[in-house]
Input
Amino acid sequence: MKKLMLIAIAFLTLNATAQDKKNGRDQFKDLSAEEVATLKTKKLTLELDLTESQQASVKALVLKEAQHRELLRTKRQQQQNDEDFKKPSKEERYAMANERLDRQIEMKKQMKSILNAEQYTKWEATLANKKKGIRKARKDKRSGKRD
Output
């Protein structure tokens, strides 16, 4: 009986510890768009060895994207708090996906004009690795795997 209680307590402790982990998206949750832009620009500066003029251009671009994401987040929160909230229709989902992809294309074009060839290649490789990590995390979440 004591062994059974000990195993149950160990299991509950392990389960509570696993639930305390925060995912990567929460790290910028409480920061303003300007703070997010500054941090991301500094991170890119370290990864790509950006010049001062490149830093300023990248920061302006990242700030614009952070402000857009903040706007979308507040809009989504308002919709979820609304009693009449309905899921988007097929046409609305298509329009949102189309807009998101247009923004990604524009971001790539602007980054290509800011960065040199070597930096741009490295930046694209970083994006590809990030996408792989996100896909893997989603797959693991669906299959029930946890770290």
